[in-house]
Design brief:
The complex is a heterodimer of chains A (420) and B (347).
Chain A (H helix, E strand, L loop, with lengths): L3 E15 L6 H6 L6 E15 L3 E6 L5 H8 L7 E7 L2 E4 L12 H11 L4 H15 L14 H13 L5 E5 L7 H16 L3 E6 L2 H7 L2 E6 L2 E6 L1 H16 L9 E5 L3 E5 L10 E9 L15 E9 L6 E8 L5 E6 L12 E9 L7 E11 L5 E13 L27
Helix pairs in contact in A: 3-4, 3-5, 4-5
Chain B lengths: L4 H6 L3 H10 L31 E4 L5 H10 L1 H15 L8 H21 L7 H23 L1 H4 L1 H6 L5 H28 L12 H25 L3 H14 L7 H10 L3 H6 L1 H14 L1 H7 L2 H7 L5 H30 L2 H4 L1
The chains are: A alpha+beta (420), B mainly alpha (347).
């Protein structure tokens, strides 16, 4: 296995949160003891080794301490206890273009930023063309950076950072910016780094990226390490905890989400029909096998969705519509009872619309469900609920993407060269 | 939590796949089998496997020697920061860098007009006298003002990039030094204009004086920049202190006027406990050049202005200041190291 590129040994980090920030001399003299504070353990006894040449992922929700951990590894923050050992030169990409001077040209900024990251002038001069080529900013390199678009800014930042020639590269969520093409280019460069035997520590909440490039990952939650293992394992753990956390109130007020023992995800809107709103959606419920044991679907498992409603008066030809969106907001699937040819005339009282999927051929992701009710003619929308409920799909395999296609592959030789 | 065996079976061992890819000549045939067909294709992997990689412990207090070594390694960064500072300052002005010359030139002309033409205070070449003292003082003051806030002003970088942070304070001293050079150039031009010769034979005295000035300024700014992160009042306090300090230095008035009183009250030691005193006196001695001023224009009045010690006195005084400043600088670095750990949190 060789040496550890980075060793994190029992690292803890405490932040002292003062109730009122006092950094004036007067305050300190007047109320020397009245500075009340709370201790927040942003990191709590974190230990792991990253073997040299490995790509290591750190997964966690916002506020789980992953950025703090990166800052401790790169020496920006001082650990409260424990220690971090790094073998070789470390470059941290915590924020692309941190330290760019808007008033200076791209050229000046390359030199300034590179030397801030520890590159000597001679090295920068040698790599200057490469940096510019990578950033694709040839025509703008002598323009002031303040005229750059945010995409150009990020490109220049990444181009400088990857040319620092580190043994250990620490990357914080920076790949989430820039256009898709540049993101792929950055990813390509990170893969090149992997081939060159550099150690990479990679923080993200994009689970797909971890699956794609990491060899191992840890999962952090509220400063504690809750798991470590191969990417698939780590992502599963991360997803489970992500869903757990979403009970605490990531939904809009007035909509209550319950994962109850009867193994279903239920959400209610707490509204009832009235003369002004003759038909309202009162809730939705999702059920899938094994939901009591785990809070996610496996690809191609069945799923059922109930939409509960209440009608105030008789309404002819009502259509129920559902839409599945991924987290990025892309419409993954949409249908309604008109397409499914289930005409319905509402009568005063409550009811339920039942959508059943025999198989959900989706891979990783969190999918939210929008639900609507309209008249068949489309003229009246009675009710429309964005993100009424959501469900999670976890892919234990290694395929990438959104759709669980099932290819088979066969590779065969077609004949030997120069053979008889 | 250890990966279960099942999981391991499901996922082919990645290390093996990569090891074989490393050997292949074409980097485009990536280990994962996904080729994005974009730039980067032509890159040859620069293997770092056999590089010598010393292990080091991050985030513990480094020794003073290491700190100095890292500072030496960051000297280019200081140069870039100074260059940035000056470039940014004059970026959008039409005259640009010329302002850094015009400003002191204009100041000198005003002094000349006020003191020698309007007030006619009787001191020969008073404008030159004043500028000789202001030259080192301005360096000190500029360095202190910008140096104290340097860490706070650069909070964005401090929070996101790891580098020796004292570099920021030192860059302030460097920037002040550049303005010193501009002012000195202007002063030289004026001396030529006024046909005022410096004491060429004693010019070398400026070397220890300038060295002492730079190290002393560096020591104070490094210390204050760290303190200012925790106590933001520091900068305001320094502003006030500098006003008082200025009058403790014989820049505007003649030291000679104060000398008898200081001797009488046995306070001479206190006056020279201020490192800026001997530094300013050295600049006046060399640039104002008492002998020249006395010999050429006003033989009587000139001796009133300057109190002339022997060259050895200036040398020894400045070497003492330099020595003390070096010690102060090391102490400041040590304190900085202690305070540095929580910068990113406090900003």
């Amino acid at each position: 296995m060789g040496n550890a590129g980075v060793e994190v040994v029992d690292v803890s980090k405490r932040f002292r949160l003062y109730h009122e920030k006092t950094s004036s001399i007067k305050e300190r003299f007047v109320h020397p003891r009245r500075m009340s504070y709370e201790d927040l353990w942003a990191l709590d006894s974190i230990s792991f080794d990253v073997p040299e040449g490995e790509t290591f992922g750190i997964l966690g929700r916002n506020g789980s301490g992953k950025s703090t951990l990166l800052k401790c590894i790169s020496g920006i923050l001082q650990v409260t206890s424990g220690k971090v050992v790094v073998r070789g030169k470390l470059a941290a990409l915590l924020e692309l273009g941190a330290g760019f001077q808007p008033e200076l040209s791209g050229r000046d900024n390359i030199f300034l930023n590179a030397s801030l990251l520890g590159l000597s002038t001679r090295e920068v001069e040698r790599r200057f063309d490469e940096i510019v080529a990578f950033s694709e900013l040839e025509q703008f390199i002598d323009n002031q950076v303040k005229y750059y678009s945010s995409g150009m800014y990020v490109r220049l930042g990444f181009a400088v950072a990857v040319n620092v020639d580190p043994d250990v590269l620490v990357v914080d969520e920076v790949l989430a910016v820039g256009d898709e093409r540049f993101q792929r280019k950055c990813l390509e460069r990170i893969k090149l780094f992997q081939k060159e035997g550099r150690t990479i520590i990679f923080v993200t909440h994009a689970a797909d990226l971890v699956r794609q490039i990491c060899t191992e990952a840890v999962v952090l939650q509220q400063g504690k390490m809750i798991g470590m293992g191969p990417p698939g394992e780590a992502i599963r753990l991360f997803r489970e905890h992500l869903l757990e956390g979403s009970e605490e109130g990531e939904f809009a007020p007035g909509e209550e989400v319950v994962v109850d023992d009867a193994s279903r995800i239920r959400s209610t809107t707490g509204e009832s029909a009235s003369a002004a709103r003759p038909l309202v959606i009162t809730g939705a419920e999702i059920q899938h096998p094994g939901i009591g044991r785990r809070q996610y679907l496996l690809p191609r498992e069945p799923l059922r969705l109930w939409v509960a409603f209440e009608a105030f008066s008789a309404l002819p030809d009502v259509v129920f519509a559902i839409e599945l969106h991924d987290l990025a907001g892309n419409l993954v699937f949409g249908t309604d009872t008109e397409i499914l040819e289930k005409p319905f005339d509402a009568v005063p009282g409550t009811g339920v619309a039942d959508f059943a999927f025999d198989s959900v051929p989706l891979l990783d992701g969190t999918y939210s469900v929008n639900v609507g009710v309209r008249s068949r003619s489309g003229g009246t929308v009675y009710d429309w609920r964005e993100q009424l409920c959501q469900f999670e799909v976890m892919n234990p395999g290694r395929s990438l993407g959104t759709v669980a296609l099932q290819p088979t592959a066969e590779v065969r030789a077609l004949g030997a060269l120069g053979a008889g | 939590m250890t990966p279960d065996a099942e999981q391991k079976l499901a996922l082919p061992d990645r290390e093996v796949g990569e090891a074989s890819a490393e050997g292949s000549a074409a980097p485009a045939a990536g280990s994962s089998g996904y080729s994005y067909d974009l730039a980067g294709e032509g890159e040859q992997p620069r293997s770092v496997v056999h590089r010598d990689k010393p292990a080091r412990v991050v985030a513990t207090r480094t020794t003073l020697g290491r700190r100095l070594l890292e500072l030496w390694g960051s000297r280019e960064l200081i140069v870039f920061l100074v260059r940035k500072e000056i470039k940014v300052k004059y970026k959008n002005s039409a005259l640009g860098l010329l302002w850094s010359m015009l400003n002191p030139a204009f100041t000198l002309m005003v002094y000349f007009f006020v003191f020698q033409i309007v007030l006619h205070n009787g001191v020969p070449q008073y404008a030159i006298y004043l500028m000789a003292g202001l030259l080192p003082w301005n360096l000190f003051q500029t360095a202190m003002m910008s140096g104290t806030t340097s860490i706070v002003d650069n909070g964005g970088i401090v929070k996101k990039v790891a580098f020796p942070r004292e570099v920021l304070a030192l860059a302030s001293v460097g920037t002040a030094m550049m303005f010193f050079v501009f002012q000195a150039t202007v002063m030289a031009l004026f001396m030529v204009g006024f046909l005022h010769a410096a004491a060429w034979g004693e010019l070398w005295l400026l070397v220890p004086a300038l060295a002492a000035l730079l190290v002393f300024s560096a020591a104070l700014t490094v210390f204050l920049s760290a303190v200012n992160v925790y106590l933001r009042d520091t900068r305001h306090l320094i502003e006030v202190l500098l006003v008082a300090w200025f009058w403790a230095v014989p820049a505007v008035y003649a030291f000679k006027l104060l000398y008898p009183g200081l001797v009488h009250h046995h306070l001479l030691w206190l006056y020279f406990a201020n490192p800026m005193s001997s530094i300013v006196l050295t600049f006046q001695r060399v640039l104002y050049n008492a002998h020249m001023a006395a010999a050429t224009t006003h033989p009587v009045a000139a001796s009133v202005v300057l109190f002339v010690f022997s060259p050895t006195w200036y040398l020894v005084a400045n070497l003492i200041v330099l020595g003390v400043s070096v010690v102060l600088f090391l102490v400041a670095l040590a304190i900085f190291g202690r305070l540095e750990g929580n910068f990113a949190e406090e900003l």
